[in-house]
Amino acid sequence: MARYVFITGGVVSSLGKGLASAALGALLQARGFTVRLRKLDPYLNIDPGTMSPFEHGEVFVTDDGAETDLDLGHYERFTGVPARKTDSISSGRIYMNVLEKERRGDYLGKTIQVIPHVTNEIKDFLSIGDDEVDFMLCEIGGTVGDIEGLPFFEAIRQFAHERPRGQCIFMHLTLLPYLAASGELKTKPTQHSVKELRSIGIAPDVLVCRSEQPIPEKERAKIALFCNVRPEAVIPAYDLKSIYGAPLAYHAVGLDQAVLDAFMISPAPRPDLRRWEDVMDRLTHAEGEVRVAIVGKYTQLEDAYKSIAEALTHGGMANRVRVRAEWIDSEIFEREDPSPHLEGFHAILVPGGFGERGTEGKIRAATWAREKKIPYLGICLGMQMAVIEAARNLAGMTDAGSEEFDHEAGAKRFTPVVYHLKEWVQGSHRVERKPGDDKGGTMRLGAYDAHLADASLVARAYGTNRIEERHRHRYEVDIAYRDRLEECGLRFSGMSPDGRLPEIVEHENHPWFIGVQFHPELKSKPFAPHPLFADFIRAAVETSRLV
Ligand code: GLN
Questions:
Q1: Pocket test for ligand 1, best of 50, 330, 381 (most atoms within 8 A of CB)
Q2: Catalytic amino acids?
Q3: Which residue's C-alpha comes closest to atom 3 of ligand 1?
Q4: Which of 194, 275, 337, 433 is the most buried (most CB within 10 A)?
Q5: Residue 427 Cα, ligand 1 centroid: separation in angstroms?
Q6: Average pLDDT rounded to a whole number, residues 143-149
Q7: Residues near 485 by Cβ (< 8 Å), separated by ≥ 6?
Q8: Could you list the residue range(s) of the whole structural domain that residue 8 is in?
Q9: Does residue 291 share a domain with residue 239?
Q10: Other C-beta atoms within 10 Å of 213: how many?
Q11: CATH number of the domain that 216 lies in?
């Protein structure tokens, strides 16, 4: 049976609960324990799949095809443990499960209530796979006191109460605001937040206090006294230059020790922190810098492309260079010549996206990169745009486009080089979709194999001919146009195992121009940079040497 750490937050949102959870996971691993991280989100969406990236940031996709919260991306980047469908749950999903059971008559005529039916459903979810790891770290989204969060808090209280004593602990994150006028750090919001938790029956074992200023010993002792937490378990969390500094920084202030103490694990195994020392060494001792333009639609909110930003950093670490990523709204290129905006960049990345807005600008960015021989990485929609670009400008199909945009406009305007996929094979079974299907959870989702062509740029980058990558899309490049495009130098260098779905294209007469139908960024880690990102940045470094 796993030990459980429940991670909650108070005072304000966006305190970095996800990061603290991920860093704790990494530190427990460094001490030789196995971990799994889980996120419980109080919102009513079934999953974030249908939410706008502006609302909720990136949708992180797991190997088994779940569309999840971006915190699961942090968990994977810090622990390397692939997340699963069962590591992310929302109130919406919990209620849906309960209501489906009610309709089926599973509750045998009982009145269905939040306690016990909803809380039982949450506890069942928490227990999944509890015999597989040493520690299960469960983060509750939102802040204590939110109405939506209450069933989750009640469920974790019951869960801890029902498990053997000492098997579950609570870690609570708060903020110590600094009042510049009086030059003081204030502990009152933290006291109130803990009081709120205790009023629902949860007493924190570890308090993580975010603060912009050093926390004096006297304040730490005061928090410990007023919040009924041991002084060693009041952990300061200061702002960091890089999120990857979190494991070493939290270790230095005793977070992992406090957690092991709370479980009374003694003596605690010594940590091996070499992985994180190497990560920090690569980050802080980078030589030189490359500039990468990310030409996309959701440029106002960096969280919309969280994993891409991280994967670029990892690519830089693999080459020991700093990557300066700059976000450019593709719509600009629909009005203006891309050259003045893109000159000086050493590589162009066009990320995934949905809908027609901004796509003509992405196509122009692809043209620019192809003609100027600047490294180009097109991801998902970015690959589809690169194919349309080649069809229009090299194969003479001036009306080439994607069915996605025709569907949106309700008219047929394009020759669909990219079409709506309705039937495909996943592993050994066939998947089918109908045009009117629900919007949520109906895309080609999760891990699929691809076979890479010999002597291709991608096979060289990966160092293998067989890969498995994660997908999230409805539309697909049509192989009917393969011969015509290959004659123009756009090679279909990666295909699904049945040879029907193009997974990768690359321009033969270009130093580095690759489009991938999947999302390689989701599998990149600071200690294991994704090979495509590592090679993309290597190509960018070469470009930077030429100019
Ligand atoms: N909108 C495109 C599709 O559904 C691309 C999706 C993406 O970039 N993730 O196929």
A1: 381
A2: 380, 519, 521
A3: 473
A4: 194
A5: 21
A6: 92
A7: 387, 390, 391, 394, 395, 492, 505
A8: 3-279
A9: no
A10: 15
A11: 3.40.50.300
